[in-house]
Fold each of these.
Amino acid sequence: FVVLIAQRDIPAGDEITITYASEASSDSFALFMGFLGGHNPHDSVELFKSLRAAAVWYAQTFKSEAGEEVVDKSKAQAIADQLSERDGPGEAAPRLGWGGRVSDSLVDLFEVFNQQIMPGEDPSAMAAHAVKLRCQEMLIGFPTSPEKDMELLEALEGDA
């Protein structure tokens, strides 16, 4: 149960409201407040467990036309470590947020690699391409389609 303590007298019949964490993700709402609301601009999804994992993924994903790796994994991880040190110990895993916001450190990492392997191309556009490709991989990896997910959700609503 929840106990509210008023800081002033409240006349009988007045409405009492509370404010939840204004910048919390849906994960936090579910875990700490016990419910989920609607669309939440503070929601995000983890793209990689760490910048090092993102560096390895990039090296394995982007190869030459002959299929050879063009980004050395150990050097890529060293760059990821430098960016992690720059961001400090509190930096979360690279994430994609509402409206396409991507962790700055992940964009920086991909831009460094893009400048190395395609110096004539726009590194920001190439970083966006890499993030899009990662999202596609993650979506393909889900066990059900979005359509099936909606069917399952609608069936649960019917049971309620």
Note: The longest strand covers residues 44-46.
Amino acid sequence: TVFAQTEPVKEQAPPQIEVTIDDLMLQEGALLKAVGRRNRYPAKAAGLLGMTLKRNRAMLKGLKVNITREKVDLSGVTENHSEGVENCFKKVNSDLKSCKDLVVENTSKMSRLVESYKILRNAEEACLDDIESKKRTIQPV
């Protein structure tokens, strides 16, 4: 037979779609643009993000990507508050407190240095003005 197939028809795999970096950059730019306007137009931005999510899920289903939502079993995890962990937290807390104290101290020193600089600059300007006025009085005009 000319048009009939003698072998059973095998299901063809979907064609491979190549996604370029430019495509991903454009999609990311569109998402960032939508998220950036979220403060001004929250309802519209939420709708756009919802549509994007639906389209992405439909695209992934079309590409036959298996998306699984696995639940993590945390029943075997126990909170083990050992003394070592508590000591580490205490040490970090004390280090953080000493760093905060140093920041306050350094800020105070900086403001005193700025004030000292201003005083010295004003004194220098006053001295220069005094020297120039003495030069004018000494030199005959």
Note: DSSP finds three helices and no strands in the chain.
Amino acid sequence: MGDPEKGRKIFTLKCETCHTLEKGGKSKTGPNLHGLFGRKTGQSPGFSYTEANKNKGIIWDEDTLMVYLENPKKYIPGTKMIFAGIKKKDERLHLIAYLKEATK
């Protein structure tokens, strides 16, 4: 299990430029992530997704995020997310723990 406080720092450094977390938050380069867990790919309201994201058909949870965050373009070929990924497993665990709390 990850440490949400460490995850907050990772989010600030690596994700915050493109994503917001709060309910009703605006999309930036990437979608608002509020309500992420349990949501199907390509479904954040108000964001223009690629067909690849819309058609991936998975539900976001700890396991799918663990794989996705390591290499987004490999997990969803055709995504417009330009992020290279987080290779360190512990950093992904921390980030996911933070996202579980921050996107409720």
Note: The chain is about 40% helix and 0% strand.
